[in-house]
Amino acid sequence: MTRAKICGLTTAETIDVALDHGAAFVGAVFFARSPRNISPEDAGPLFERARGRAGIVAVTVDADDDLLGRIGAYLKPDFVQLHGHETVERAAQVRRLTGAGIIKVLSVSAVEDLEAAAGWEDHADHLMFDAKPPKGSALPGGVGASFDWSMLTGRSFAQPWFLAGGLNPKNAAQAARISGAPLLDVSSGVESAPGVKDPALIAAFLKAVA
Ligand SMILES: O=C(O)c1ccccc1NCC(=O)[C@H](O)[C@H](O)COP(=O)(O)O
């Protein structure tokens, strides 16, 4: 069985659908340029319904101390997802500032990109292999780009890891089978428009990987 994270949730209805269909993680995005951006003050009460039912993930991109402090205070996430150029030293500071575990995202377009995982062995609780966004993209994630999943076939890593990038209800099972990923992550593939999560697509995605 593959477990899944539904990312970029902004409404009670879509969080409930994710929880009711067995999402293992639910994510809130804290990045001003994202159509999924939400404030820590709004995310806190909204995501409380997920506490103890799924891991609550705060997605950040080279966030400053002020934002991380607010995320820690209002959302109290189980994990902070580092989707920027954070170093292992910064990851340790993020842990201290938020009290949360770390999911480190590694952008992949070629097999050599997987080598970065070794540097995070003692510094992240989970890894996420996400597709490198197309040149000029305004966002480092959530863009629906994918990479060749067979690069991951037969590989093992020190931490549990997510496959992300361009997944949707139709390709999720095949992606899990080819890559061997224990965890999948999806955002735009379960939306009807940028930033608008579709309850039926969330349910279909989670059924596809169950
Ligand atoms: O989703 C966003 O808007 C976003 C913005 C900035 C940094 C990361 C972001 N998303 C992170 C995720 O975990 C996405 O789920 C992941 O990149 C996969 O996205 P998609 O290809 O759309 O499924």
Automatic annotation (TrEMBL):
GO terms for molecular function: phosphoribosylanthranilate isomerase activity. Residues 4-207 form the N-(5'phosphoribosyl) anthranilate isomerase (PRAI) domain. Pathway: Amino-acid biosynthesis; L-tryptophan biosynthesis; L-tryptophan from chorismate: step 3/5. Keywords: Amino-acid biosynthesis, Aromatic amino acid biosynthesis, Isomerase, Tryptophan biosynthesis. Pfam families: PRAI. Gene3D superfamilies: Aldolase class I. Its EC number is 5.3.1.24. It catalyses: N-(5-phospho-beta-D-ribosyl)anthranilate = 1-(2-carboxyphenylamino)-1-deoxy-D-ribulose 5-phosphate. Belongs to the TrpF family. This is N-(5'-phosphoribosyl)anthranilate isomerase. It comes from Brevundimonas staleyi.
